[in-house]
Design goal:
heterodimer; A: 118 residues; mainly beta; seven-stranded mixed sheet; globular; B: 112 residues; five-stranded antiparallel sheet
Chain lengths: 118, 112
């Protein structure tokens, strides 16, 4: 069964460093997402990406964050100058949804990357 | 007003009983609704999606949607200890309905 894969599973970084979290969405899916979940808190939307551009982003997704689809399979989240409060689980998701509303809007999640900023 | 609200729980039910999970949402324009299950330390796993008013059944799970009341529910029949997890209600929303918005989740504990 197709699945979303994320690497690495755990990343430890020093405060102020840049990190890149990587995701391979399900093949032929068109919508890609990044979410984060701070320990004990809710799953928070960061950004959605469609047709090689950001579709929507949250207030959390400021200039510190960027996303990229560098090739036909990978989808990355870059966090510049990491802060202690960036420590969280980061989830990538994808859905088969396109602009045709009949296509599935179900989003499937990867296993997550646990980011620890020290 | 929060976009998606759920009772945080914890909800405890005995094994074999019916667990009932509830959710309300604020955006009347939302058309897609989801239930995810999340085990501790794991990623959200899609259980059900529902798009039309009424009931949708899949095995032991039944999702119910009432758009007029902006209410979504999930029933789990014959609850098993393996159903113990946090259940996340989610709604497709946002300015362009381009994001899946999660509620805070309801923690369910099924007691053997």
């Amino acid at each position: 069964e197709p699945e979303v894969t994320q690497t690495p599973s755990h990343q430890v970084t020093q405060m102020g460093q840049e990190v890149i979290l990587r995701c391979v969405p399900i093949s032929n899916h068109l919508y890609f997402y990044w979410y984060r979940q701070i320990l004990g808190q809710k799953v928070e939307f960061l950004v959605s990406f469609y047709n090689n551009e950001i579709s929507e982003k949250s207030e959390i997704f400021d200039d510190q964050f960027s996303v990229e689809r560098p090739d036909g399979s990978n989808f990355t989240l870059k966090i510049r100058s990491t802060k202690l409060e960036d420590s969280a689980m980061y989830f990538c998701a994808s859905s088969g949804r396109g602009r045709n509303p009949l296509w599935s809007t179900e989003a499937f999640f990867g296993q997550g990357t646990r980011l620890t900023v020290v | 007003q929060k976009e998606v609200e759920q009772n945080s729980g914890p909800l405890s039910v005995p094994e074999g009983a019916i667990a009932s999970l509830n959710c309300t949402y604020s955006d009347r324009g939302s058309q897609s609704f989801f239930w995810y299950r999340q085990y501790s330390g794991k990623s959200p796993e899609l259980i059900m999606s529902i798009y039309s008013n009424g009931d949708k059944e899949d095995g032991r799970f039944t999702a119910q949607l009432n758009k007029a009341s902006q209410y979504v529910s999930l029933l789990i029949r014959d609850s098993q200890p393996s159903d113990s997890a946090t259940y996340l209600c989610a709604v497709l929303g946002g300015t362009s309905y381009d994001k899946v918005i999660f509620g805070p989740g309801t923690s369910l504990s099924v007691i053997p």
